[in-house]
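Repro:
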Amino acid sequence: MFLAAVAAIAYEILSASALTNLLGASIFYFSLTIGIFLAALGIGGWFQAKIKNNLIEKLILIEIILSF
């Protein structure tokens, strides 16, 4: 889990840096990236609490949906 968290934070920083380099306004894009990232974590945690049965099948379905 630690490695996944480090990779997620690194991705967040890289995406915010890329937006800043392309569009300027560093504080705005870093704040936007962090806000979206934390909102997605909250939504994912909320949905995770709803999943009770057939965990493997639902994991595969979610991964297929995310790949699109």
